[in-house]
Design a protein that fits this description.
With 328 residues, the protein is α/β, with parallel strands linked by helices. It contains 9 helices and 17 strands. The strands form 5 sheets. Strands 9-8-7-10-13-15-14 form a 7-stranded mixed beta sheet, with helices on both faces.
C-alpha cells in the first residue's frame, strides 16, 4: 500500500551505511568533524534520517510516512537500525535516540521531549565545540547542515559587528566570535539563549564581550532601527513557520521573508552583508528582493558533503544596491 513501510532484510541498510561511511571518511577525517549525517532516506523501505553525534546516533522517523497500523513495522525497523548501527559504528542501542519529526506549533516548538534527560555532551567541529542533547528536545541543539557556513564565518568576521537573528543555540554566533566579530545573538527562547551562552563558555569566548537578547525578532528589528543601530554582518536563519505565543504575529517564511529581509537590511551598515538561509522546502525568493537589493545565491557551497542531494536549505548573500555611487 502506498506510504507504508515494508519490513525487509536489513542487509541493504547495513551496506548503504558502510558505503556512505567510506564516501565521507576523508571529508570527516580532514575536518575532524564528530557530528554528521550518515543516512538520508537512501532506501525507500527505510525512510529515516540518521545522524551521528560522536558516541551517539539520532534517528529521525518522518512522521507522515507511518500510521498507527504500522506500529509493528516501526518496532521491527527500530530493531534493524539498532543492530546495524551497533555493528557499523559500535554505538550501543542505549546511545541511539529515535525521534518522530513532525511540524510543531506554538509552545510545542520549545517543548521538552524527555524532561528527565540532562544528557548534554560536547561534539567537536574544529576549532569549535558545541553542546548537544539528543533526548531533551526534538532537535539536538546543532544544525549540521550549517557546518560550511560556520567554517566560512571563522575566516571572515574579524572586526565586524555581527547580528545573529533567530540564533537558536548560537553555533553561528560562536563561529562569528571566534572569527573576531562582536556578536549580538537574538532569540525569543531563554532556553536557547542560555544554551548559546554555554557554547561561548566551552569555546573559551568571554560572553561578557557579546550580547544575548531575548526578544521577538520582528519587534527587536523595529527597536534597533529606531535606535539607529547598525551591523556589518546580519545572519538571518528563521524557522519556516512559527506561531509561538511569545510572538505577536505568526511567522510564515514563504509569506513574510520580503518584509523580514527589508527590516533587517535597514540595520545594515554601508558595505555590509546579510546572509539569509531557510530550510523551507521548494522555497523561492520573492522577485521584489532581487529588485531592491543585490542578491547572490550561495546554496551550493553552504551545503556540506553529507547533505548533498538533500535540498536541506537554500542560502543567499544580500547587499544594498549602488545608485550613482551611493548605497541605498
Amino acid at each position: 500500500m502506498k506510504g507504508k513501510i515494508v519490513s525487509r532484510d536489513s542487509t541493504p541498510l547495513r551496506n548503504r551505511l558502510i558505503k556512505n561511511q567510506k564516501k565521507l571518511k576523508s571529508y570527516l577525517s580532514a575536518g575532524k568533524f564528530e557530528a554528521y549525517r550518515i543516512y538520508n532516506k537512501d532506501i525507500p523501505e527505510y525512510p529515516y534520517l540518521i545522524d551521528i553525534y560522536g558516541p551517539h546516533a539520532v534517528i529521525y522517523e518522518q512522521g507522515k510516512r507511518l500510521s498507527e497500523e504500522d506500529q509493528l513495522l516501526r518496532e521491527e525497523h527500530q530493531k534493524d537500525i539498532e543492530s546495524v548501527i551497533a555493528e557499523v559504528f559500535q554505538i550501543a542501542p542505549e546511545f541511539q535516540h529515535f525521534k518522530l519529526r513532525e511540524r510543531q506549533k506554538g509552545a510545542e516548538q520549545y517543548q521538552i521531549s524527555d524532561p528527565k534527560s540532562e544528557e548534554y555532551f560536547v561534539v567537536r567541529e574544529p576549532p569549535m565545540k558545541f553542546l548537544v542533547n539528543p533526548n531533551r528536545y526534538l532537535d539536538t541543539g546543532l544544525f549540521l547542515d550549517h557546518r560550511p557556513l560556520r567554517q566560512h564565518l571563522l575566516s571572515t568576521c574579524r572586526g565586524l559587528r555581527v547580528l545573529n537573528l533567530f540564533c537558536y543555540t548560537g553555533s553561528l554566533s560562536v563561529a562569528s566570535a571566534l572569527g573576531g566579530g562582536t556578536v549580538t545573538s537574538v532569540d525569543m527562547s531563554r532556553t536557547y539563549l542560555d544554551w548559546a551562552y554555554d557554547n561561548f563558555l566551552i569555546n573559551e569566548i568571554n560572553p561578557q564581550a557579546h550580547r544575548f537578547v531575548q526578544a521577538d525578532v520582528l519587534k527587536d528589528l523595529v527597536r534597533r532601527r529606531e535606535e539607529k543601530e547598525t551591523f556589518d554582518l546580519i545572519l538571518l536563519d528563521p524557522p519556516s513557520f512559527s506561531n509561538s505565543k511569545r510572538m505577536e504575529d505568526d511567522l510564515d517564511i514563504e509569506r513574510d521573508h520580503p518584509i523580514l529581509i527589508r527590516d533587517a537590511m535597514l540595520l545594515l551598515a554601508p558595505g555590509g552583508s546579510l546572509i539569509f538561509s531557510t530550510n523551507k522546502r521548494k522555497f523561492e525568493l520573492h522577485p521584489v528582493v532581487g529588485q531592491q537589493y543585490q542578491v547572490k545565491e550561495i546554496t551550493q557551497w553552504t551545503i556540506p558533503l553529507d547533505f548533498h542531494h538533500s535540498n536541506i536549505h537554500c542560502a543567499f548573500v544580500i547587499k544594498r544596491k549602488e545608485v550613482l555611487g551611493q548605497l541605498i
